[in-house]
Amino acid sequence: MSLLMKIYYHSPIFLQNAFTTMQGYIYKRQRFGSVYKQTLESLKNRDYSDERALRDYQNMRFRELVRYAKHNSDFYKEYYRGVNLSEINTVDDITKLPILPKETVRQNLEKMYAVSPKEGLESNTSGTTGTSMKFYKTYKDSQRRMAYLDYFKYQHGFVAIKMKRASFTSSKIVPPKQKAKVFWRDNLAIRQRIYSGYHCKGNDIKYFVDNLNLFRPESLDGYPSALYELARYIIDKNIKLTFRPIAVFPTAETLLPHYKEAIEKAFNCPVRDQYASSEGAPFITECKCGKLHYCVDTGVIEFMEDGEMVVTCFETHGTPLIRYEIGDRAFLSKEQNCQCGCKMPVVDRIEGRTLDFIQTKSHGKMTSIYLSLVSSDFNNSVKAMQFIQNDTESVDIYLVTDENYTRDMDKIILDKMNYNLGDDMEYRIHLVNELHKEKSGKCRLIINKVSK
Prior knowledge:
CATH superfamily of the largest domain: ANL, N-terminal domain
Shape: globular
Number of strands: 20
Mean pLDDT: 88
Strand order of the largest sheet: 8-9-10-14-13-12-11
CATH class of the largest domain: Alpha Beta
CATH architecture of the largest domain: 3-Layer(aba) Sandwich
Strand content: 15-25%
Structural class: alpha/beta
CATH topology of the largest domain: Rossmann fold
Number of domains: 3
């Protein structure tokens, strides 16, 4: 644990709110600068009914990224050695470039960086097997992606920074030994109240509902699993809320149909889904007609026959990602006409994130999104991670590591597991050469042999 986190955890709650807001102002300067404002204004004026203009823009951004990557990234200089850039002019030429497997990224990540760590913003990400990788984004990329996200919300009536939002996240804002039933902290910099997704379970949900009725947010966002638990409680207890959000914007997990139905019923507002990724994937966003659109102005998605997505994201100048096998799945719709008038391709469904879970003794069900963050401190030394639960008392953790992993890192995992899942269970760590795979060849992050 860092010194700053130790100071935070040992401070009274009012100071923790102050620290959260101070960090919020730092993020605000990084993410909401002039590039953000210019991009947001440009998006508001873009004609999404002009398919040819959208494709011309996509081709232009694609050419720019490929040339930038080869000239600024040591990895791409070598990876594209046999590629004639003069032949790469449109998205139709993308198959002339090699596909980028996730394991290739993990092994060459530092060579892929096109900016120095001092010049970029760090972002850690984990995939379906828990593999941790550290990416860097440029400040411009970060602001442009934030503008795309906020434009998506703007289309549904929510104006970022000017309106109050409640966010259900995996941020460890609540100290492990805190006894007070205060599971939220305020980020006044952007009018945001952050709620701990770890604690939105069981009898403690009552405190979340009571606080939401006092805060009266104009939107909610975050993990669908936490929002669903909240919605079920509101419905089961027949609670009347004192506010009605403009919309709920789930993120990071797959939005299952029964999740959406319960959340819309509880909060009496639409739920608008979207897909992206922390390492960088083009956006897929839901329109007012309830259809998902692949945003061609944010990148290129190649939809393979089995639904696997190969992605190229335009806002990855810090760590360029071109034809990247991201590991998520989505399927294009057979019906490509949408009443909203947008000519961007319609996506039928996203199967991006698994909703397997660990059944804990004191924290209820914890989905993979909370566990995939466990390995973010390992500097890419963990190749893959898997959690297997055979009984309600323990969890076995299997790691595939490289030579940089040391057994001292076990303590990092155990500390995180005690926070994430509770300190009333046993956690056993095993170093292995390969993980258990399904008959399909897929490797799941969680295998739960207790709860079905």
